[in-house]
Amino acid sequence: MVIKKVCCIGAGYVGGPTCSVIAWKCPDIQVTVVDKSELRIKQWNSEKLPIYEPGLDKVVKECKGRNLFFSTDIDSAIKEADLIFISVNTPTKTYGIGKGRAADLKYVEACARKIAEVAENNKIVVEKSTVPVRAAESITHILSANRKLNVSFQVLSNPEFLAEGTAVDNLLNPDRVLIGGEESPEGDAAVAELSWIYGHWVEAEKIITTNTWSSELSKLASNAFLAQRVSSINAISALCEATGADVSEVASAVGQDSRIGSKFLQASVGFGGSCFQKDLLNLVYIAECVNLPEVANYWQQVTDMNVYQRTRFSKRIVECLFNTVTDKTLAVFGFAFKKNTGDTRESPAIYVCSHLLEEGARLNIFDPKVEPKQIEQDLTSADVTSDPERVLNLVNIYSDPYEAVKDAHAIAVLTEWDEFKTYNYEKMLSIMKKPAFIFDGRKILDHQALIKMGFHTETIGKRFSRNALQRASGEHFPAFSWTP
Ligand code: NAD
Ligand code: UGA
């Protein structure tokens, strides 16, 4: 088989960028991305794409209508394709067995059933969604139990490692491409076909092939290791605050050991995003299911530490503001779970804001990319509040950061957007209530400069000397500050 047509089911954060890059790099292949959401497909076909990713507009513009198509006609795209990616969402289950931990595979299963129903010739089916170990086996089972006569399928695992905000760059220059397949001549042939696609732009030595289960588990393990690094440095940040050490200095010293490496050691208000927590919980669930409670508890701690970190940060804000934020106004800078994305899924900002709202604070929220409707939806969802009306009364969303800080008692930086570093904080200070506080949950601002200006400055993993803060805050040094 020579792949001429590829279909991708799921036009989300993974399916959209991944298939756009495939279309860009493989002009000899026709790529059709399908989704059951008419709105999503309409957005992909419009000038304003449904997701913000640096560099993506250019890639899509160049290929759309040439060899890249977005459609809701799922059946036709499956019928025509030689190879089908399944890139649908695999959220944490919210019901039944494994509720709150296991991955919900209902969307993946629906795709497998649809492929079996519609396919009229042999297909390679590629599991790109992140799934539990042995999911490929279930997909194979569903496909072969429902296939038409003379139709056969090969199921591959090809997990995606892109990170949001850098998706295009990650796809163009991956550390590795992982392909898991069945250990048989047919399996090997399917692996070779998919490797051929990536081979259009990825060096052969970066394309790793394994058995299907190793590939599936490697994806969960990679995310667990990354999340573990963030939780490890965040645990150290709490120690730094209690002892006078500076977490940036510790991270730099630790990271210079070439065995440890310097990446992913940025202490923060906590990790967010749609996958770290979901995949960790999934790993915990799998470990429990195979009766390995010690392994389950080990990985559970990584997510527990993350909850501790964001709760600790919210509590510190309340403590510093004289133990009450009721009716005080706080400007919130950043709502996305990281910079360069408009994605808010599991953003630490949701949890910090909801804690402050529970305490009665008024929030003026500004984010350069997140749509106001999304912020309102996140803060009024049933998981976050039982009183959405009250929340909407306390929240105002701004498109100008200077407007957001007017008469505010404090600023809380919750996303590391580069533009936050360049604001005129003198100007902001002059229009804020005094003493003015700034809580840098991402460690991106020039703290010494802010202290000098007169801001009471707090950040993660470092405490500033009482003298410096006292000088800045004059008479109003907070009696209940965490600073000893
Ligand atoms: P997403 O929610 O952005 O997109 C999934 C899309 O699938 C949605 O548009 C939905 O409408 C569509 N869909 C669901 N069921 C469908 C069906 N039966 N038929 C047609 N369309 C259907 O999700 P995402 O962020 O792209 O993640 C997809 C998968 O990739 C997940 O398993 C995730 O864990 C994994 N992943 C995500 C990232 C990331 O950065 N977001 C990175 C690596 C891996
Ligand atoms: C992560 C992985 O990095 C990708 O390899 C993986 O494909 C993806 O999950 C997935 O499976 O969905 P992503 O969640 O998009 O990507 O973003 P990251 O850059 O990993 O950041 C995750 C969170 O950790 C963010 O909230 C970020 O601010 C936080 N973080 C990251 C820190 O707090 N400190 C760090 O040093 C690094």
Please supply descriptive tags for the structure shown above.
484 residues; elongated; binds nicotinamide-adenine-dinucleotide; alpha/beta; 6-stranded parallel sheet; 13% strand; binds uridine-5'-diphosphate-glucuronic acid
How does the SSE layout of this entry go?
Blueprint (H helix, E strand, L loop, with lengths): L4 E5 L5 H11 L4 E5 L3 H7 L11 H8 L4 E4 L2 H7 L2 E4 L19 H13 L4 E5 L7 H12 L6 E5 L9 H6 L4 E5 L3 H14 L8 E5 H32 L3 H9 L20 H14 L3 H28 L8 E5 L14 H11 L3 E5 L5 H9 L7 H7 E4 L2 H5 L4 E4 L11 H6 L6 E4 L6 H7 L2 E4 L6 H8 L11
- Average pLDDT confidence is 95
Rg calculated over all Cα atoms: 24 Å
State the strand order across the main sheet.
3-2-1-4-5-6
Low-confidence stretches: 477-484
Describe this protein's structure:
The chain is α/β, with parallel strands linked by helices and 484 residues long. The chain has helices at residues 15-25, 38-44, 56-63, 74-80, 106-118, 135-146, 167-172, 185-198, 212-243, 247-255, 276-289, 293-320, 348-358, 372-380, 388-394, 401-405, 425-430, 447-453, 466-473, and strands at 5-9, 30-34, 68-71, 83-86, 123-127, 153-157, 177-181, 207-211, 329-333, 362-366, 395-398, 410-413, 437-440, 456-459. Strand 9 (329-333), helix 13 and strand 10 (362-366) form a beta-alpha-beta unit. Helix 5 runs parallel beside helix 6, helix 9 packs across helix 11 (276-289) and helix 12 (293-320) packs across helix 13 (348-358). Bound molecules: nicotinamide-adenine-dinucleotide and uridine-5'-diphosphate-glucuronic acid (UGA). Uridine-5'-diphosphate-glucuronic acid binds next to helix 9.
